[in-house]
Write a structure and sequence with these properties.
alpha+beta, 5-stranded antiparallel β-sheet, 7-stranded mixed β-sheet
């Protein structure tokens, strides 16, 4: 899709691009430039949130910002012009007449157009929720337009000067928790408000113990109720990633016939292997934790039972067998649940898998997961054990055949070599699409994962 147009030889317009696969709209979270700022080709000018992730948009040409067409917080259709740039400043050419920019007003939104395309493939059709600025019916000619724009720019400049310093993910967290950033005391370098500052403002009680690094992949930032909330209820708009998640889970739950099987397994030897690998020089710099071994165990099980790595093609009534594994890792973030995946995980050695897993975790925690990183997954792992939960019945990620839930690893009495001894034990749950995975195949996969975790040497003999 073309993302820029030429309004004259001097002025160019940049349109909201489709930054995902078939997305139709995105919300402008943050502008990094203002009218009058100089921009260069490739410079990031704004951050937007789509139904998949938050994405930074670079401008594709040099120039001076002439106009921002939409304020922050506006949801814009793909293809709408969002910024106009003067690519030949000082040439003396009269800029094109522009509509006066106004702040959004509270009006009933127009009825959504029918027949909209799916926001995400497999997520179902979503009605339009696009919100636009109020616009005047006629253009303001000559000096009036210039005066109006100058006044608007002045208000924006003042707002920018008084705007608290915080990164977009932190602003989003504050919005979700109902915290006014102007009331938050910054502790970050240069007066920047951090995530911890927002949590402190939301819940001034003593902070809980920090999440261990190996648990970060699924542990969300602690969410506390706003201090002294007005009234008895708080309503949070559902849009962007959270809206897509809700649609996806409903679509998955009522489309794919789910079957979930469980197994409890002694993982004492796996925990010993984790401890040994942490001291291994060949694993230096690699994040080693039980999740790494579990991921490798699942890959071994898929290799032994390739039929589980498939997808259901409803249109053609076919089972599509995948000869690669893009391993998804469910991650809870302030924006909602996301499932980035490790591409071609089946080809990676244990150190390579550990590096990829560590990068995936860091990127998700920083809110930088791209739509491409979440596309094309085949099988997923969700680690509910970090919350102290024994297990669960996970819902399939749309388009995937199976999802493995990992419960908490606890010291429990266990019969080992004919005697009751304290052993490290966990419960695994495997949900699968019963249209393409029958009970025998699903059972074999889960049994193989458990067997590897009980006897990690099978990573060598089976792998």
């Amino acid at each position: 899709m073309t993302t820029m147009t030429e309004t004259s030889a001097r002025f160019r317009e940049f349109k909201m691009p489709d930054v995902g696969e078939g997305l139709t709209e995105a919300e402008i979270l943050k502008w990094f430039v203002q009218p009058g700022d100089t921009v260069t080709d490739g410079q990031v000018v704004c951050e937007v949130e789509t139904a998949k992730a938050a994405v930074e948009l670079p401008i594709p040409f040099d120039g001076v910002v002439h106009e921002l067409r939409f304020p922050e917080g506006t949801t814009v259709d793909v293809g709408e012009v969002i910024i106009a740039v003067d690519v030949a400043p000082g040439s003396g050419e009269t800029p094109p007449a522009a509509e006066a920019v106004q702040e959004p007003v509270q009006e009933p939104e127009p009825e959504a157009p029918k027949g909209r395309q799916p926001v995400l493939v497999g997520y179902g059709v979503a009605e339009s929720s696009t919100k636009r600025r109020a616009r005047k019916g006629a253009e303001i000619p000559g000096p009036a337009a210039a005066a109006a724009q100058a006044e608007i720019n002045g208000h924006r400049a003042k707002a920018t000067e008084s705007r608290p310093l915080a990164k977009p993910p932190v602003r989003k967290l504050a919005k979700d928790l109902g915290i006014d950033l102007a009331t938050v005391t910054p502790t970050g370098e240069g007066g920047i408000i951090t995530r911890e500052d927002v949590h402190a403002a939301a819940a001034p009680a003593p902070a809980e113990a920090p999440v261990r690094a190996e648990e970060a992949v699924t542990a969300p930032a602690p969410v506390a109720a706003p201090v002294a909330p007005a009234g008895r209820e708080t309503r949070i708009p559902v849009k962007g990633v959270r809206k897509a998640i809700a649609q996806a889970m409903v679509g998955s739950a009522f489309t794919a016939p789910h079957v979930t099987e469980f197994v409890t397994v002694d993982v004492t030897r796996t925990m010993k292997l984790v401890a040994e690998l942490k001291e291994d020089k060949d694993m230096a710099g690699v994040r080693v934790n039980p999740l790494l071994i579990i991921a490798k165990a699942l890959l071994v099980a898929i290799k032994r039972n390739p039929g589980v790595n498939a997808a259901w093609d409803e249109a053609n009534q076919e089972i599509v067998q995948k000869h690669y594994v893009n391993l998804g890792i469910a991650a809870a973030t302030p924006r909602g649940l996301i499932v980035p995946n490790i591409k071609d995980a089946h080809d990676k050695t244990l150190p390579q898998l550990g590096e990829a897993l560590g990068e995936l975790v860091s990127t998700a925690r920083e809110g930088r997961t791209s739509p491409a990183a979440m596309a094309g997954g085949t099988v997923t792992i969700t680690n509910v054990g970090v919350f102290g939960i024994d297990t669960g019945t996970p819902i399939l990620n749309p388009g995937e055949s199976a999802i493995l839930a990992v419960g908490a690893i606890k010291l429990q009495p266990w019969v080992h070599k004919g005697k009751v001894k304290p052993r490290q034990v966990t419960t695994l749950a495997l949900s699968f699409d019963h249209r393409l995975v029958d009970g025998e195949l699903g059972s074999k996969v889960l049994a193989d994962v458990a067997a590897v975790l009980e006897q990690p040497k099978r990573l060598i003999t089976w792998g």
